[in-house]
Amino acid sequence: MFSWLSKDNRNKRETDAYTSVLEGLQKCYYKKLKPLEDYSFFGEFHSPALTYGDFMAKPMVLLIGQYSTGKTSFIKYLLEQEFPGMRIGPEPTTDTFMSIMHGSHAHTVPGNALAVDPNFQFETLSRYGNNFLNKFEGAFVPNEVLDSVTLIDTPGILSGEKQRTHRGYDFEGVIEWFSNRADMIVLLFDAHKLDISDEFQRAIQAIKGNDDKIRIVLNKCDRINTQQLMRVYGALMWSLGKVIDTPEVSRVYIGSFWDEPYLFDEQRGLFEAEQEDLFKDLQSIPRGAATRKLNDLIRRCRMIRVHAHILSALRNQMPSMFGRDSKKEQLIRDLPYIFEEVRKQNNLVAGDFPDVTRMRDNLSSFDWNKLPKPNLKLMANLEEMLTLDVPQLMALLPQEQARAQERGGVKGGAFNYHGKDNGTKFGAGPDPFADELMEEWIGEDEVQKGGLHFESLHPVDGKLPGQVSLTR
């Protein structure tokens, strides 16, 4: 590919010296990638252009699930506090996309205001129109958890007759926008209802391509006994196998992530271990943020490269004057064959090509008079970025991860119990307030006297031999 750009010439090209992965990503994008995006109208077919906020934003956790699966309760559980605008109930209560972020005081900001603020990463959401922006809101909370991550609560996905209600905006498109920028995507399922509605299937299809980010939570498991849990888990895996088109289903966490006592206590140990694993997964997000952004930009490069070749191939086959409309219809109909020709001619990877059905829809509404000519200079810049700049940025990743490790993972809220008392809280294990309650019931003086007496008996590893008397 690009045989005129020999290896020697590539080695002679000068690249910028980067001091951090974030700085390098910004420079590479605006200098070498965005010009090709604009030239090839990539934003009209796929993801809109990245902004300053996309590079500077905190890691994002996106929660998706059908209504009443516990998404809002899960966020409340992590924060250990309510946030402005939250509503919890058995029926669909969250009809907005809500970004929960750190703020000096609790307040909300409407979506139209967030979409015009360059300090946030939501500028390109304006493409989905006022109907969506009226259903988008930012909730700011002074909470330590939000120092490290931003949490995105999504509308409860409808099922049955309810899913026929038109939302008034491109729901799947918005889901895709958030999933492409998220560091982790959490799909929540209720142990009492595992049916995957048509709208839920479309939402799962919208996050396709982000399989490495997906985590699955089977929630409210304490409301069923062990035998029922085994059946529910098997049914969930069977359902997911039909919807998620991957050889292996993503990691499934089992538990009840809310601040309520367990109804069935027989699987407490399992729930505590699952919670511990999920918390470790969440806490690792800040450490992997730089790697995720680099990986996403590389994937974007590959998509843009394929997109530019496709449009060039279509332009080359279009007549200059007569019969353009009929030729356009023929090319759209023959798109799979054109994909294969483009792949072979340019030595591309089949997995980098877009969905044929979606590409057909976009081409049908696109003005073919704007089909761009091949631009070798812009394509050479993209190749230079992949072959020279990306390896240099990858070499900086260990330093970035070391700095992130020093800062630590997610802290505050429920994460303060991580690694203590089996990492559990509330109804899911030892009570973190047990000592305070003991002092309240018995009296602080008596508690101190009991402790001194216990130490006077010379315990070994916190235990006393069976023959030792505890009487004073």
Automatic annotation (TrEMBL):
Cross-referenced CDD domains: EHD
Record's keyword terms, sorted: Calcium, Cell membrane, Endosome, Membrane, Metal-binding, Nucleotide-binding
Pfam families: DUF5600 (PF18150), Dynamin_N (PF00350), EHD_N (PF16880)
Entry GO CC: endosome membrane; plasma membrane
Any one biological process term the GO annotation gives: endosomal transport
SUPFAM superfamilies to which the protein is assigned, alphabetical: P-loop containing nucleoside triphosphate hydrolases
Domain (Dynamin-type G): residue spans on this chain: 55-286
Its membrane topology: Peripheral membrane protein
Stretches that traverse the bilayer: none
GO MF annotations, alphabetized: GTP binding; metal ion binding
Record localization: Cell membrane; Endosome membrane
InterPro entries registered for this protein in UniProt: DUF5600, Dynamin_N, EHD_N, G_DYNAMIN_dom, P-loop_NTPase
The protein's name in its UniProt record: Dynamin-type G domain-containing protein
Source organism: Oopsacas minuta
